Amino acid sequence: MDIASLGGTILAVVAVVFGVIMTGLTAGQIIDIPSVFITLFGSLSAVVISNPIDRTKRAWSLYRMIFSQTSYDSLKKIQEIVSFSEKARRDGLLALEDDMDKLDDPFMRKALQLIVDGTDPDVVRNVMEIDLSAMESRHGENRDWFAVLGDMGPAFGMIGTLIGLVGMLGNMGGDSAAIGRGMAAALITTLYGSLLANIVAIPVVNKLKARTSEEVVVKSIMLEGALSIQAGENPRIVEEKLSSYLDPKKRVELKQQQDED
After folding, report:
1. What is the DSSP string of 200-225?
2. C-alpha distances in angstroms, 104 versus 25, 87, 108?
3. Residue 88's pLDDT is what?
4. pLDDT tens digits, 153-186
5. Is 166 within 8 Å of 260 (Cβ atoms)?
6. Do residues 35 and 237 touch, judged by C-beta distance below 8 A?
7. Do residues 221 and 245 touch, judged by C-beta distance below 8 A?
8. 52: region left, alpha or beta (phi > 0 left; psi from -120 to 50 alpha)
């Protein structure tokens, strides 16, 4: 469970509820079913129109993904690559074939298979960079679903506000209380649109971007590690090169783990 995503979502909801209570508003004043229909279903319809159906089917899975803990352990991956480097220098590249079936990451397995097959280093880099670029493109397309939702939420909130204003103006010269209720209902749709964008859509886009960045770093480590193994570099040099991808704190942690081993 990703505590940051869960805690942030709960905190945002609590902040809104607390603000409502502190202003003296009641649930009846905040909850407006027609406004929910206009904002929520209007936004979702626009998002569905804007995206392929397969992307819409994946939307719920993507949303749940931000609450799951990622397994991008860059330190562990560097240690694994260094061990492969030691084995390759000692027994040759072909000795890595026994380890490839044990790898759970297709990207690393593909890179090692290419170098074991004797593929030219430039070709290996080109093939794996295409793979990496394609992954980033897929992730970007998946984020687009929530990006559109973030745009459409406030837009349909404004549409609901305009509908409410039309009804309010239709009562001008009549019951002043009805005019006040109409104005309140009109503004609630704007509120719903802002909440949809700022508590759901935009945070999901930002979290998925962060996850993609983490994965890109780890896969870049794998690629550089595989090429270093192919070049026959000293395992210590391989470790120093790959640790450059880490922040200073993690570099110290990696050094401590290597000393313990």
Report:
1. IIHHHHHHHHHHHHHHHHHHHHHHHH
2. 53, 19, 8
3. 86
4. 999 999 888 887 777 776 666 566 666 666 767 7
5. no
6. no
7. yes
8. beta
